[in-house]
Design goal:
The chain is mainly α. The protein is built from 33 helices and no strands. Among the domains are: 1-106, Serine Threonine Protein Phosphatase 5, Tetratricopeptide repeat, CATH 1.25.40.10; 433-444 and 451-516, Serine Threonine Protein Phosphatase 5, Tetratricopeptide repeat (Alpha Horseshoe), CATH 1.25.40.
Length: 681
């Protein structure tokens, strides 16, 4: 009895220690006291519960779950259901956590809160929304703001990943978390400008909230704002402002945020901006997407997008085996998804295996008819790239749900025209028009009353008629033109085309139809020609022809006389012109073509260079004076003149005379540069 009493006294002291440490938040010390209590009584339920709580508070979730699983007889699901589910949730065993919560006999408020978190992680957003609404409706405590934030996060996820139009929850956006979630919901709807304004408001609220705490530094504020700035950069990227987005992304990375999910998303977005450029930077960024724990931070669609971009990056960096491996893995995870097979086909095309790529796409189209349209469009593009336009047309025409679309009809007609296959092009028009006729018959339920055709239907008929007329198929265009005129009898242009077509086939019919044309009086344009010619924008104004009075006639005659009296200006003569000397009749001919040209004297000056001292000459200055030497007369008479000039004449012809005071031209001599220095004195 004394030993039992001593043990009870020791246990009481230990419980006091546990209580005191728990109130102080010292769970490590509390755990030591709990372990001592369990040494006294290993099956103490309260002590085991306290141990599990201490381990959870210290972050030892795996050890806490081990204690629960070891003492299942004592710690039943009714006693420890929340702690077990929470440990499983924190260890990312989400499915197990859901089973634990659902197996609990009593759904406490704590379990309902955890249940909402588990549903969010499982991406069961409809059930999650209902759970949080129930919690907000039936709870009244200090955590109401957090529940509303979680509710807005669910709505944002629905808008982003499921493209569900969010309902107005009537939440007052008083915190930056609520503003941020509202912005995410707007991004999911494509309202980017409104979303940017919400994010700017969220940034302002965040700064105000954190600046009130004196212990928070500017670095802490920037770290908290990182996720808001990341979403801003994403909006910029969607708006095409890639340079601004890239700059903001890199600023966030420099801050080195601890959120691996945020870093992975930013790195992925930078890779999408780089595409096939700057692959070295992309290979560095892709490492951030492989960080530990990323798979638990992002949604399935985010993780899938990252894997797609990894496969594309492998293709751009010529890692063919890696690209095939990644795309095959993606295809096994999502067999119905288009991107994996498109990436494989693109890789085959880079390897010049176009036929194999087309075969791969054809197999996928056969296995997944729902996605066949997009695959066949890609196949047609590959055929066009190979130059097989006719085969591409056959593939496009096999897409039944797109045969009647104006874009498809236009593409097929253009391609057939390029191949000069007019019959096939007309057949495409005919099939599309028939589809609309059948559609109209179905919608009218066989009603015989005249129904106007849709604008698309009429547009196809008109394009078909114009195409046939352009290629000389007027007989075939008649039915289309008649249909158009029937729809709009006031359309003069269509009537004119119809008359033109009938004029070659049935002239009598053309005459009958021509009576429906409006008269020339109704079609004449009432335009004031004079006002039009005299307008500000007229480039040519016709002068009015009017009768001239006697005074005007005299003025006109007088002006004419003045004009007749005008003489040409005398040409300028040379300054040294001598009227007594007969000009040289060959002065207008080039020197080489004149009869007295003797050619240039060669070698005379060359022989004289370098003789004597600098500045001296070998001949007298009198010998070089041209004024003292008589010009030698030509030996033969000049053509075109009856008599030759006298041999004793020493006058230089005017064309050869130099003006007085004109400096003699000197020939420029090229100076060779010396090696290693500048030429000169």
């Amino acid at each position: 009895k004394m030993a039992v009493a001593a043990g009870a006294a020791a246990a009481a002291g230990l419980w006091s220690e546990v209580n005191r440490c728990g109130q102080n938040g010292d769970f490590a010390r509390a755990l030591k006291s709990v372990n001592k209590i369990l040494q006294i009584n290993k099956d103490d339920v309260t002590a085991l519960q306290c141990k599990v709580v201490c381990l959870i508070q210290n972050g030892n979730f795996k050890e806490a779950l081990g204690v629960i699983n070891t003492h299942t007889k004592v710690l039943t699901s009714d006693v420890i259901a929340f702690e077990k589910a929470y440990c499983e949730y924190r260890l990312n065993r989400i499915e197990n956590a859901l089973k634990t919560i659902q197996s609990a006999s009593q759904q406490t408020d704590k379990l309902k809160e955890l249940y909402g978190q588990v549903l969010y992680r499982l991406e069961r957003y409809d059930d999650c929304l209902a759970a949080y609404r129930d919690l907000i409706r039936n709870s009244q405590d200090e955590y109401e703001e957090e529940r509303k934030t979680n509710l807005s996060a669910v709505v944002a996820a629905q808008s982003t990943w499921e493209k569900v139009v969010p309902e107005d929850l009537g939440l007052r956006e008083a915190t930056y978390e609520l503003c941020y979630n509202s912005a995410c919901a707007l991004i999911g709807q494509g309202k980017l400008n409104e979303a940017m304004k919400k994010l700017q408001k969220a940034e302002e609220l965040c700064r105000q909230s954190l600046s009130e705490d004196s212990d928070v530094t500017e670095e802490d504020i920037e770290a908290e704002l990182a996720i808001i700035h990341g979403q801003m950069a994403y909006i910029m990227q969607l708006q095409g402002r890639t340079e601004d987005a890239l700059q903001l992304y890199n600023q966030i990375i420099k801050l080195k945020p601890t959120d691996v999910g945020l870093l992975a998303v930013i790195a992925n977005n930078i890779i999408t901006i780089n595409k096939d450029q700057n692959v070295f930077d992309s290979k560095k960024k892709v490492k951030l997407t492989n960080a530990e724990g990323v798979e638990h931070k992002l949604s399935k669609k985010q993780l899938q997008a990252i894997e797609f971009n990894k496969a594309l990056l492998a293709m751009y960096t010529n890692q063919a085996d890696q690209c095939r491996k990644l795309s095959a893995s993606l295809q096994s995870q999502s067999p119905e998804h288009l991107l994996p097979v498109l990436i494989q086909a693109a890789q085959l095309c880079r390897e010049k295996q176009h036929a194999k790529a087309v075969g791969l796409l054809q197999d996928f189209a056969d296995q997944h008819p729902a996605n066949a349209a997009e695959i066949k469009l890609t196949m047609a593009q590959l055929k066009i790239a190979q130059g097989s336009v006719t085969k591409a047309c056959m593939i496009l025409r096999s897409i039944e749900e797109l045969q009647h679309k104006p874009g498809m009809v236009s593409a097929l007609v253009t391609m057939y025209s390029h191949e000069e296959d007019i019959d096939s092009a007309i057949e495409v028009f005919t099939q599309a028009i028939q589809w609309y006729q059948q559609y109209q018959a179905r919608t009218n339920h066989g009603c015989s009353v005249f129904q106007p055709k849709s604008p698309v239907h009429l547009s196809l008929i008109r394009e078909a008629a114009n195409f046939k007329l352009k290629h000389g198929r007027k007989k075939e265009a008649i039915s289309d033109l008649e249909e158009l005129w029937k729809q709009n009898p006031k359309d003069v242009h269509t009537l004119a085309q119809l008359i033109s077509a009938y004029s070659l086939v049935d002239p009598e019919k053309a005459k009958v139809l021509s009576k429906h044309l409006p008269s020339s009086d109704t079609m004449s344009l009432k335009v004031d020609v004079d006002a039009l010619e005299n307008s500000h924008g007229a480039t040519y104004v016709r002068k009015k022809a009017g009768k001239l009075t006697g005074d005007n006639q005299q003025k006109e005659q007088g002006q004419g006389e003045v004009k007749k009296k005008k003489k040409k200006k005398k040409g300028k003569l040379p300054k040294n012109y001598d009227p007594k000397v007969t000009p040289d009749p060959e002065r207008w001919l080039p020197m080489r073509e004149r009869s007295y040209y003797r050619g240039r004297k060669k070698g005379k000056k060359k022989d004289q260079v370098g003789k004597g001292t600098q500045g001296s000459t070998t001949t007298g200055s009198s010998e070089l004076d041209a004024s003292r030497t008589a010009s030698s007369p030509p030996t033969s008479p000049r053509p075109g003149s009856g008599a030759a000039v006298s041999a004793t004449s020493n006058v230089i012809p005017p064309r050869h005379q130099k003006p007085a005071g004109a400096p003699a031209t000197k020939k420029k001599q090229q100076q060779k540069k010396k090696k290693g220095g500048k030429g000169g004195w």
